[in-house]
Amino acid sequence: MAKLVFEMMISLDGYINDARGDFDWGHIDAEVHGHANEEGRRCGLAVYGRRMYETMAIWQTYRGDTPFEAEYAEIWRQTDKVVVSKTLTGPKTPRTKLVTSLNVDAMRDLKTQTGRDIFVSGPTLAADYLDAGLVDEIGIYYVPVAVGDGTPMFQTRNKVKLARTEEVPFTNGTVFIRYDVLNGS
């Protein structure tokens, strides 16, 4: 059975973007990008909400300004994607399936049918899977900045118990921490 992984870059105060919707405060240097590339290689299926997909779709045509970005772009283009949206009329990228919903039962089925890990990006989408106990692992890139307000990573209605399994500090101050979800599936 595939693991369901919820992984995001966040500010120290827990936001994936600031009050204006920007995330230009992220510290994605070569070292952090190299780690993100390794994480991307684990992903057998990426599940996005509309906003996160529209943000990530740049990787379909962007070739990167650095070797690490170019490598990530290639990884992203080779990954199968599911986009959950009621407003998009069709996918903008290859290897992408558009669905109007992906409820808890459908995600449970995906976990049994998919041979590699499933990564869900987008806090609203991930909240239902967290509440249902379907998320197995959480990965967080903590960026050393507080933005004060924005979109919080965790929008779950229930307590989520975690156990830290890995911690990777980067020289730019960003820290990646991987957690197992103790009350998950």
Automatic annotation (TrEMBL):
Q: Name one GO biological process term.
A: riboflavin biosynthetic process
Q: Which domain of life is it from?
A: Bacteria
Segments forming domain Bacterial bifunctional deaminase-reductase C-terminal: 3-168
Matching InterPro entries: DHFR-like_dom_sf, RibDG_C, Riboflavin_Biosynth_HTPR
Entries under SUPFAM superfamilies matching the protein: Dihydrofolate reductase-like
Which GO molecular function, any one, fits this protein according to its record? Answer: 5-amino-6-(5-phosphoribosylamino)uracil reductase activity
Record protein name field = Riboflavin biosynthesis protein RibD
Organism, scientific name: Neorhizobium galegae bv. orientalis str. HAMBI 540
Lineage runs:
Bacteria, Pseudomonadati, Pseudomonadota, Alphaproteobacteria, Hyphomicrobiales
